[in-house]
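Second opinion, please. Please look over this fold, written as tokens:

===
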Amino acid sequence: MIELQEAGEIACPAGRVWAIVADYGRDPHWRNGVETMAPRPEGVVRVGTTTAEVMRFAGRTYRNGGEVVQVEPGRSFAWRTTSGIDAEGGRLVEPLGADRCRFTFHVRVTPRATSEKLLEPVLRWLLRRSVRADIRRLAALCGP
């Protein structure tokens, strides 16, 4: 299993960051490799929101269905896949003052294929690097 939790401070109000990370339709703007993300219903997540994601990672294209399973409005949500890769995770936004916040991205992926299991250390490294870069892109997108 590959489990990561990466966080970064963002020089932006928590509400602005939440408006981006809680709207799956905006994922292609800050998550590298996400070619399409189609949430139903559109807009800010709620329990039961479903997603259809197409993403490229480590030279492969993945088509994943997902579902939001828990929401704390304005602060956090948890998700799990319903098709495609076997994964779950969450996003958390914590205010650190009027104009700063911390964003935390958590993901747990369970490789199924033997080749993915053998490459788990490399995939973990690639995923960590990708998530850290995503947080930097999010910070740039949210900036003044």
Residues 120-142 form the longest helix (23 residues). The mean pLDDT is 94. The helical segments are 14-21, 27-30, 114-118, 120-142.
